[in-house]
Amino acid sequence: MENIHALQAFLSSQKNIVITTHQKPDGDAMGSSLALYNYLVPFGHTVRVISPTEYPTYFSYLPGYDEVWNYLENPQLSQIAIEAADIIFCLDFNDLKRIEPLDELIQKNTNKKIVLLDHHLYPKIDADWILHDVKASSTCELVFRFLEIYDPKFKITHEIAECIYTGILTDTASFSNGATNKKSLEIAAHLLDCGLNIIYVQEQLNQNGREEKLRFLGNALFRNMIIREDIGIGIIVVDKKDAYRFNLQTGDTEGLVNYPLTIKNVKVAILIKQEPKIIKLSFRSKGDYSVEKICREHFEGGGHRNASGGRSFLTVQETIDKIIAIFEKEKLV
Ligand code: 5GP
Ligand code: MN
Fold first, then answer.
1. Residues 240, 145 share a domain
2. Domain boundary among 161, 188, 206
3. DSSP assignment of 100-133, as one string?
4. Cα separation, 26 vs 250, whole angstroms
5. Which of 170, 189, 206 is the last residue of a domain?
6. Confidence band (pLDDT; 50, 70, 90) for 110?
7. Structural domain boundaries enclosing 281
8. Contact 130/119 with Cβ under 8 angstroms?
9. What is the pLDDT of residues 2-12, one digit of tens each?
10. Which secondary structure element, helix H or strand E, spans residue 81, and what is its range?
11. pTM of the predicted model, to two decimals?
12. Ligand nearest to the CA of 29
């Protein structure tokens, strides 16, 4: 299916559609999946959004949230939906590893049409139709651009607007980081014209939290942050004990990694998060320095130049030591 006309023709009759996105979906993953869901449902398609893992409850304001399936909770039903699917939309990931443990099912069902909308470096997904742009602010921007091509007269409902705005806002850190581009601002302005209530979205995202989460933030910055201005890095550690003590929920560490970057001489910030079986790593950088390369070469990961992730199978202390050894050689300062 090399062109958009083939896709339009394919979807001109009612189809079984699966939309999936990366593990522990963030605002862009949830927003893009649900924007597309809200667009497709009125055409009579059977649409199922399947997340490979659990997802944050603080996105429950997104229209369609209650219809999302967590594969870990619903493996049999998810399998039925994937086997019955005519087409699978892959949103906001560049590598099937990012949808483990759902990747096996997708790989087994090779007879499905695949559409990929993504903005991460080095996409490794074999798709029939691709909209991939590393300069896109977010996958939500790409859903908007996809709809502009696929259905130039598409109507932006308030449901679609809230979903798209959420992903743009979260991936650009409220239009402040390097992902912010002209198109993202234009889309936001357009969504406003279509009746989007930006105060409502910002209240849901930033003024709807739990006390434990705020105290966890204070504790992490006070006790668990290592600042090494001499080599230009700052590390925050979240271990299993903290997760238990502060009753951490999925998504509660979102944004935490950015705090060390507020220090002048810190060029790279790293979050080390101890999970039941592995250590999950988040990297952020300032300016031209690419943390994507570090994640790809040392931590089986990837992402964007200034925001990437990876994993470590070492202990927390060994992971800290490995990171420090890498940046002692990188000469950031
Ligand atoms: P975060 O640190 O917010 O989890 O992720 C930052 C960026 O890196 C996101 O765009 C995310 O999709 C990507 N990313 C996070 N973890 C991984 C990983 O393990 N592998 C790859 N390829 N990308 C990742
Ligand atoms: Mn994204």
1. no
2. 206
3. TTTHHHHHH-TTSEEEEEE-SSS-----SEEEE-
4. 10
5. 206
6. confident
7. 211-330
8. no
9. 689 999 999 99
10. helix 75-84
11. 0.95
12. 2
Report residue 91's pLDDT band, with 50, 70 and 90 as the boundaries. Answer: very high
Ligand nearest to the CA of 300: 1
With the most atoms of ligand 1 within 8 angstroms of its CB, the residue from 98, 170, 285, 311 to mutate is 98
291 and 179 within one domain: no
Query: Is the same domain home to 186 and 58?
Result: yes
Shared domain for 184 and 46, answered yes or no, is yes
| Contact by Cβ (8 Å): 120, 134 | yes
Ligand 2 center from residue 275 Cα (angstroms): 22
Tell me which ligand sits closest to the C-alpha of residue 91. Answer: 2
Dist CA 164 CA 30 (whole Å): 9
Distance 309 CA to ligand 1 centre (A): 4
Q: Are residues 56 and 88 both part of a single domain?
A: yes
pLDDT, averaged across the chain: 97
Q: Which atom of ligand 1 is nearest to the CA of 22?
A: 12
- The tens digit of pLDDT for each residue in 151-173 reads 999 999 999 999 999 999 999 99
Dihedral sign, Cα of residue 286, residue 289, residue 295, residue 298: negative
Residue of the CA atom closest to atom 12 of ligand 1: 303
pLDDT the model gives residue 2: 64
β 16-21/46-51 pair status: parallel
Residue nearest ligand 1's atom 19 by CA: 310
Q: Residues 199, 248: one domain?
A: no
> What are the pLDDT digits (tens) for 218-232?
999 999 999 999 999
CATH number of the domain where residue 29 is located: 3.90.1640.10
What is the per-residue pLDDT across 31-48, written as a single tens digit (0 to 9) for each? 999 999 999 999 999 999
Q: Is the CB of 303 under 6 A from ligand 1?
A: yes
Taking each continuous run of H as one helix and of E as one strand, the counts in the chain are 12, 12
What pLDDT score does 17 carry? 98
CATH of the domain at 288: 3.10.310.30
CB of residue 302 inside a 6 A radius of ligand 1: yes
Do 23 and 163 fall within a single domain?
A: yes
Inform me whether the pLDDT recorded for 22 exceeds 70. yes
Whether residues 18 and 104 fall in one domain = yes
Q: Probe ligand 1: pick from 256, 308, 311, 319, max atoms within 8 Å of CB?
A: 308
